[in-house]
Write a structure and sequence with these properties.
Number of domains of chain B: 2
CATH topology of chain A: Nucleotidyltransferase, domain 5
Largest interface: A-B, 20 and 16 residues
Low-confidence stretches of chain A: none
Number of helices of chain B: 11
Distance between the termini of chain A: 13 Å
Distance between the termini of chain B: 11 Å
Number of domains of chain A: 1
CATH superfamily of the largest domain in chain B: P-loop containing nucleotide triphosphate hydrolases
Largest sheet of chain A: 5 strands, mixed
CATH class of chain A: Alpha Beta
Low-confidence stretches of chain B: none
CATH superfamily of chain A: Dinitrogenase iron-molybdenum cofactor biosynthesis domain
Largest sheet of chain B: 9 strands, mixed
Strand content of chain A: 25-35%
CATH architecture of chain A: 2-Layer Sandwich
Structural class of chain B: alpha/beta
Mean pLDDT of chain A: 93
Order of helices and strands of chain A: EEEHEHEH
CATH class of the largest domain in chain B: Alpha Beta
Order of helices and strands of chain B: EHEHEHEEHEEHEHEHEHEHHH
Shape of chain A: globular
Number of strands of chain B: 11
Shape of chain B: elongated
Helix content of chain B: 25-40%
Oligomer: heterodimer
Mean pLDDT of chain B: 93
Strand order of the largest sheet of chain A: 3-2-1-4-5
Strand order of the largest sheet of chain B: 3-6-7-2-8-1-9-10-11
Radius of gyration of chain B: 22 Å
Number of strands of chain A: 5
Chain lengths: ~110, ~290
């Protein structure tokens, strides 16, 4: 049975659920982490800094590593590079391509994919 | 003796200057030309020759012996390039394309679970150039497309060039002032900084002069495409860094023609004004060398 899950949204802002989802993944500044309950309702949300944002190389890998620490199951961003896709796939984190809307709106659009 | 050519800005004429100087110097001295612009080596194109004697450039690639791995995360934590991804349980997963072959994971692993494999990131070539009775050797370094780590390729090509006995080693560097260029400059006696009278040419010239002054290498400036813009600030920089402007190469149709023919101008049109400037540069370099 699927339990509570965490979804990460790539963003350049620190506006919680009002943050706009970025086109970037590996070098994006922050992730908004949204915790959903069994009914896919928002339980909590918080912002983490993406260590890949300042990385000299392997930014996407550092981002994925951080998402693993946070036990994120799904990540949403506008685009994913080749290194990101290899790492996400290998670590069984689902990725969804979407950007330019608020986190709250994005969540509404992807609920059926979760 | 090692003489390097650089200049910061891409497309400023570094390689054109280099191949022409190589041909003139090779008339008097045994010479090796090293093309260390590994992301886009093109001296062979300007010389109209095909690259020969390919050898692979290999770097270390870690393999994990999962029976020995104790999931301590040391390898992933020490990795600077993101090539060592750790699963939530701490199991390392190697992403070859990102690995620079630095061996940090190998040294840090407490159970010797990292084994040394290897990976080819590029090739070096050794080509015998023989044009109109003038011969010298060309060593070129070439990074495989998609590879990110240029320094190992530069070092490998430079080593192959320096291992060949010669009176003069000429080194053609890539654009920019990255560690790739600094690695290429290392042990050079003279750097020729090729620039042009444009704002970007000026900007990148200053970066090169800063780099060579830090590395304490005597540097001379060659202004290519002279006449297309003001040179006042170039002259100021020259004074500030004590780097003499030894030649000004004007924009010329002869150069374009020689480029199209795939034959360096000092061979294609010996009596061209431009060829004479290359003779002057070489005479100047010889004087400096003989003074030492």
């Amino acid at each position: 049975m699927v339990n509570e899950m965490k979804v990460a949204f790539a963003t350049e802002e620190k506006n919680g659920l009002d943050s706009i989802v970025s086109t970037k993944f590996g070098r994006v500044a922050y992730f908004v982490i949204v915790e959903l309950d069994n009914d896919k309702k928002i339980k909590d949300n918080y912002i983490i800094v993406n260590p890949g944002g300042e990385a000299r190389s392997g930014a996407a890998i550092k981002a994925v590593q951080k998402l693993l620490e946070e036990k994120v199951a799904v990540v949403v961003a506008g685009a994913f590079g080749p290194n990101a896709l290899v790492a996400l796939d290998e670590m069984n984190i689902k990725h969804i391509v979407l950007s330019g809307v608020k986190v709250s709106e994005a969540l509404g659009q992807i609920t059926d994919k979760l | 003796m090692i003489i390097s050519v650089s200049g910061g800005k891409g497309g400023t004429g570094k390689s054109t200057v280099m191949v022409n100087i190589a041909i003139l110097l090779a008339q008097k001295y045994s010479l090796v030309l090293a093309d260390l612009d590994v992301e886009d080596p093109n001296d062979h194109i300007l010389l109209g020759v095909k690259l020969e004697n390919r050898e692979p450039i290999n770097i270390m690639l870690p393999f994990v012996d999962y029976k020995k791995c104790i999931k301590c995360r040391a390898c992933g934590n020490v990795c600077d390039t993101g090539a060592m991804l750790l699963s939530p349980e701490g199991i390392p997963y190697v992403i070859p394309r990102l690995c620079s072959g630095c061996r940090a994971c190998y040294y840090v692993c407490p159970t010797k679970a990292i084994e040394e494999g290897k990976r080819t990131i590029g090739y070096t070539y050794l080509t015998n150039v023989d044009m109109d009775g003038i011969s010298f050797k060309l060593v070129s370094g070439e990074l495989i497309e998609g590879e990110e780590h240029t320094p190992p390729a530069v070092i490998a090509a430079k080593e192959r060039a320096l291992n060949i006995d010669a009176e003069i080693h000429l080194i053609d560097t890539s654009a920019g002032t990255s560690n790739t260029v600094a690695t290429a400059f290392d042990n050079s006696k003279i750097v020729l900084a090729v620039t042009e009278p444009t704002p970007l040419g000026l900007h990148d010239l200053e970066l090169i002069l800063k780099l060579t002054s830090l590395m304490k290498i005597k540097t001379f400036i060659v202004i290519n495409r002279a006449g297309i813009g003001p040179e006042d600030d170039h002259v100021k920089l020259s004074r500030q860094y004590g780097s003499e402007i030894i030649a000004r190469i004007p924009y010329s149709r002869d150069v374009v023609e020689s480029y199209i023919k795939g034959k360096p101008i000092v061979l294609y049109k010996k009596d061209s004004k431009i060829s004479q400037i290359f003779y002057d540069i070489v005479n100047y370099l010889e004087e400096v060398v003989n003074d030492d």
